[in-house]
Amino acid sequence: MTDNLVQLLPDAIANQIAAGEVIQRPASVVKELVENAVDAGADEINLIIKDAGKTLIQVIDNGCGMSETDARMSLERHATSKLRTAEDLFTLHTMGFRGEALASIVAIAQVEMKTRRAPDELGTRLVVEASEVITQEPAAAPPGTSIAVRNLFYNVPARRNFLKSDSVELRHIREEYIRIALAHPSVRFELHVNDKLDLSLTAGNLRQRIIAVFGKKYRDLLVPIEESTDVLSIGGYVGKPEAARKSKVGQFFFINDRYIRSSYLHHAVTMAYDELLSKDSYPFYVIFLEIDPARIDVNVHPTKQEIKFEDERLIYNYLKATIRHGLGRASIMPTIDFES
Ligand code: ADP
Ligand code: MG
Fold first, then answer.
1. Alpha carbon of 199 to ligand 1 centroid (Å)
2. Which ligand has its closest atom nearest to the C-alpha of 38?
């Protein structure tokens, strides 16, 4: 008889492997950290990027902050304050819930966290490298949380070498940042790239946020849409036909404030425009769908951009009708076929 061979992996290795799923590139870190800041109730979130996130990604928020114990605990795998029971999965309103992001990030980078809850006199400073806590100490800090992620993938050379050029990585970062900024117009966002202010978004409503992100010309190009039933509500803006582009920029779906991709729902939108658009152009839209969380499964993919939902067909038809109605009200199309 030979000795048994099966052993549990050490945490640092398990976390590094898990990180491969959650963190593909600097933009994934941006998404996770900015979503955490939103979940923490921040109304000001600053993002600081150096070298397209390869040397520094820092997110500073004025949210709820963490106690010293929670700050240390937040770095553990499956550690979350957002989910307690299996039932909670069906009523979730936070962006995160898996408790994997921080554990993944600290496994593959050099991380410095400073955090303080408003009522506490002192905050906590933590320095972590490759899942190992180097420093944990009380420290003066403004209320909220700052997390600086340096030298992403420094200990995973294969991953680091796989990163694309700075311009490509920065484009991915901007995309993630803009998606979250569109979903949270009441939060003030600032993006600094290589020590320069790149994008500053003041708090406002969705219309103002869209114009701040995409430019003043959208002032005259946005058509509001709004309909609701007891299981589904739809809101947001679609572009007038003149806002359509030949390239695929400017299509955003959010389900319960979470950005998703859906070629199925995209099809519903293009069908709503029907002959208003030429075949090779894409309509502009920023559409929010609110659905009872019990009717959708956000658990499908670790980065959670695809979700499954019940009643797909119904949502398709309702979305199409809502857009037709909106375009009709804006006198862009007759409303007579709304009921069809
Ligand atoms: P998840 O977001 O899925 O819970 P994370 O690994 O992203 O998992 O974060 C773990 C926990 O750390 C969160 O549940 C939250 O309690 C805490 N946390 C993370 N970031 C922040 C932040 N910016 N402000 C306050 N708490 C935070
Ligand atoms: Mg999170």
1. 25
2. 1
